[in-house]
Write a structure and sequence with these properties.
Layout: E1 7-11, H1 15-26, E2 30-35, E3 48-50, H2 56-63, E4 68-71, H3 78-83, E5 90-91, H4 95-102, H5 104-113, E6 121-124, H6 127-137, E7 141-144, E8 155-158, H7 161-171, E9 177-181, E10 187-195, E11 201-203, E12 207-212, E13 215-221, H8 227-243, E14 248-256, E15 262-268, H9 278-281, H10 286-294, E16 308-315, H11 328-332, E17 338-341, E18 352-360, H12 363-376
Helix pairs in contact: 1-10, 4-5, 6-7
The structure holds adenosine-5'-triphosphate and magnesium ion (MG).
């Protein structure tokens, strides 16, 4: 890429695309976005297109003239987009990486085969296979749909064979589902890794991800863990990203076990909610490093700008449209609160609508400021 002002195509128009584009624009990159349906967050950009992205002609028009094409989500039609690309345009991460990651069974098999620690799991074609696997692991077990799950939809924790049988029909595809041993973890952790095409990486601090009702409520960085666990978590995340040949920013969700071991839960081939803290919290945000990595530009430092960073999600509290932003002024008057509103036109109960980050030296103080600011916003 000789062009000092490359063109980046982003497949996706949600908050991740919006935040990627913001960093790209800041560095002089020309950005265009494509979404299959009208997406609020991307409307901030001049070249935001809404069109049927399963149509090859739409994809070809979109990718024409791009130096690099990336995806906001593993569900974007990456392989289809890659098909018509000229040699001078790269799709990053590669369709191969996306294929491995978007099927939870294939992903776990790939990681386990390469020696990355994961919970015990079995890819089961039939109910009987699943019951046998669950007997072997011991109940409870977690049933996981192979493809298409997010925010915990597509998983079920079952206590016995009857519950397993009950949940099978809604979760199993033609090739069945994955049965995973229940990990009685100490904490859920996440680590972001940015990786360039040649393999050069930077690794972010270890984040503690606090879940409420199966959704990420808050992320605290650095996680309050021992040095040994921190090193293990970062090393495992870096290895996992190498194993899938990830290019760009890859987020690694981990379980810290009571004995101090660390297991990979899953990877996301893109910037991730658990890395939003890095916008204000790190010298280089996950979005900036994603853009740098896919353009094969030098990566920036992921070091924290303060002793602590806390991010609290702002979730929809009702279903309807358009959202109001009641309480925004109250949130903005909280000292040091960085408020992000994604601009989604429809609110749904529990939907991620925005987030608040606060960084600072006193952990308890920044936690309460972030919680207060996030709670003030009613959508
Ligand atoms: N093997 C397991 N043992 C215990 N808890 C688990 C296990 N697998 C998943 N979970 C819990 O369920 C949550 C969601 O699981 P997972 O990450 O597989 O699903 P997802 O739908 O891709 O979720 P998300 O989009 O929220 O990341 C995890 O964050 C964790 O709290
Ligand atoms: Mg997950």
């Amino acid at each position: 890429m000789d062009d000092a002002f490359p063109t980046l195509g982003i497949l996706g128009g949600g908050q991740l695309g919006k935040m990627m584009a913001a960093e790209a624009v800041r560095m002089g990159v020309d950005v265009r976005l494509l979404s299959p349906k009208k997406a609020g967050p991307m409307q901030a950009y001049a070249d935001a297109r809404t069109a049927d992205w399963t149509d090859p002609q739409v994809l070809q028009d979109f990718t024409e003239g791009c130096d690099v094409v990336t995806v906001e989500s593993e569900w974007a039609p990456a392989a289809e987009a890659a098909e018509g690309l000229p040699e001078t345009t790269a799709l990053r991460p590669s369709p191969d990486t996306l294929d491995v990651i978007k099927d939870k069974g294939v992903q776990k098999q790939r990681l386990a085969a390469a020696g990355c620690s994961v919970p015990d799991f079995a890819c089961c074609h039939t109910i009987q296979d699943a019951v046998d696997a669950a007997d072997q692991f011991g109940y409870p077990v977690v049933l996981k749909q192979y493809r298409g799950s997010y925010d915990g939809y597509g998983n079920a924790t079952v206590a016995d064979a009857d519950e397993l049988r009950e949940n099978w029909p809604s979760l199993a595809a033609d090739d069945g589902l994955m049965v995973e041993a229940f990990a009685d973890f100490e904490r859920e952790l996440a680590v972001q890794v940015a990786r360039r095409p040649g393999g050069e990486q930077v690794v972010y601090p270890v984040a503690y991800t606090e879940q409420r009702d199966h959704r990420c409520h808050a992320v605290e960085v650095p996680a309050q863990i021992s040095d040994a666990v921190r090193r293990r978590a970062q090393a495992l995340a870096q290895k996992s990203v190498d194993v899938v040949d990830g290019i760009g920013l890859i987020a690694v969700e981990l379980f810290e076990m009571p004995d101090g071991s660390v297991l990979v839960n899953e990877l996301a081939p893109r910037p991730h909610n658990t890395g939003h803290y890095s916008i204000e919290g790190c010298a280089t945000s996950q979005f900036e490093n994603h853009v740098r990595a896919i353009l094969d530009w030098p990566l920036g430092s992921p070091t924290l700008r303060a002793s602590h960073a806390i991010m609290v999600n702002v979730l929809g509290q009702r279903t309807g449209s358009p959202p109001s932003t009641e309480g925004l002024e109250e949130a903005l008057s909280v000292d040091g609160a960085a408020v992000h509103i994604y601009g989604k036109p429809d609110v749904r109960d529990g939907r991620k609508m925005g987030h608040v980050t606060v960084i600072g030296e006193d952990r308890d103080d920044i936690r309460s400021r972030a919680e207060n600011a996030a709670a003030a916003i009613r959508l």
